[in-house]
Amino acid sequence: MRPEIGLDIDKLQMLLSFKAQGARLLEASLDDHRGLVAAVKQVDVVVSAMSGVHFRSHNLHLQLKLLEAIKEAGNVKRFLPSEFGMDPARMGHALEPGRITFDEKMEIRRAIEEGNIPHTYISANCFAAYFVPNLCQMRTLLPPKEKVHVYGDGNVKAIFVDEDDIAAYTIKCVDDPLALNKTIYLRPQENILSQNELIAKWEKLSGKVLKKIPIPSDEFLASMKDLANQVGIGHYYHIFYEGCLTNFDIRDDGEEEASLLYPEVQYTRMDEYMQCYL
Ligand code: GNU
Q1: Which pLDDT tens digit goes with each residue over 226-263?
Q2: Do the beta carbons of residue 40 and residue 73 sit within 8 Å?
Q3: How far is the CA of 136 from the centre of ligand 1 (A)?
Q4: Does 203 have pLDDT greater than 90?
Q5: How far apart are the two ends of the chain, measured CA to CA in Å?
Q6: Does residue 5 belong to any structural domain of this protein?
Q7: Helices in the chain by DSSP H: which ranges?
Q8: Residue 24's pLDDT is what?
Q9: Which residues are catalytic?
Q10: Is there a domain that residue 26 lies in?
Q11: Rounded mean pLDDT of the chain?
Q12: To test the ligand 1 pocket, which listed residue (56, 101, 130, 156) has its Cβ within 8 A of the most ligand atoms?
């Protein structure tokens, strides 16, 4: 638990709920190197889940400090940096300014590998809460009532994963030798869906037909003049026009797919995920 949390009552309540479930909370601050080393010395695995989308460069700086403490402590058996999205190693071509998200993750990876820190990179694809109930619309987290903007023909495949399943697969990896120094992609088969398939699922569940408004890629990219949302627009372009989550095969060396490694995880399908938004 970091004192920087300050008066973030939601984060504090979340941490206390972990404690109620048996977790042991340690106080440490990324601004106190010695205290951080002492905390890291007490654990075998460090998982960083710092939000990158909002505090990018701050996040980079903090994760590098965490990495310094891990190097000095010397006892950590596995470090999982805050990835959990697209594979940044495959986003070298990403549009400005959203590319910073991936450039910074690659900087953390370089520092991890230079430090010979045992690691696992989790490419979790799309967090369902951000992408599914809103049928992939931006600037909302709730289902549309009348109309839905469709990216291109709406047939580009993306991958949507319930956050609890992302956590379940992640915990399976942390002490699995098969995941050591590898990138693990989360591609649960039935959650590999296009925007059109998501829309059809919602229409079936809600009994409503939505008006579909196609957005051609050039029009979508032109909306990047909206300076407030340039980062997000770039990310959504890569996901829903380029298909960057599904336009490559997972390699045999250094890469694994989680639902094949851990078939025992009963992952949530997206029609079930949508239920609570009805
Ligand atoms: C997209 C966002 C949602 C932003 C990734 C503006 C990095 C990734 C799939 O930056 O977390 O409305 O992998 O109006 O590696 C951002 C993230 C969310 C877009 C979601 C992203 C996905 C970034 C918005 C919005 C819902």
Answers
A1: 888 999 999 999 999 999 999 999 999 999 999 999 99
A2: yes
A3: 10
A4: yes
A5: 35
A6: no
A7: 9-20, 33-40, 56-73, 100-114, 128-131, 163-174, 195-206, 217-222, 230-237, 258-261, 270-274
A8: 94
A9: 105
A10: no
A11: 95
A12: 130
Token look-up 């010395």 returns 41
> What span, in angstroms and rounded, lies between the C-alpha atoms of 202 and 199?
5
Band the pLDDT of 5: cuts 50, 70, 90.
Answer: confident
Specify the pTM.
0.95
CA 141 to ligand 1 centroid distance, Å: 11
In the prediction, which pLDDT does 213 show? 98
49 within domain boundaries = yes
**CA–centroid distance, residue 54 to ligand 1 (Å):** 10
Interatomic CA distance for residues 149 and 195, integer angstroms = 10
User: Is residue 197 pLDDT above 90, yes or no?
Assistant: yes
Question: What's the gap in Å between 173 CA and the centre of ligand 1?
Answer: 24
| Structural domain that includes position 50 | 31-277
Total tally of structural domains belonging to the chain: 1
Residues flanking ligand 1, CB < 6 Å: 53, 85-86, 101, 125-127, 130, 134, 138-139, 229, 231-232, 235, 239
Q: Quick check: is 64 in a domain? A: yes
Residue 42 sits in a domain whose CATH number is 3.40.50.720
Please name the residue whose Cα sits nearest to atom 8 of ligand 1: 85
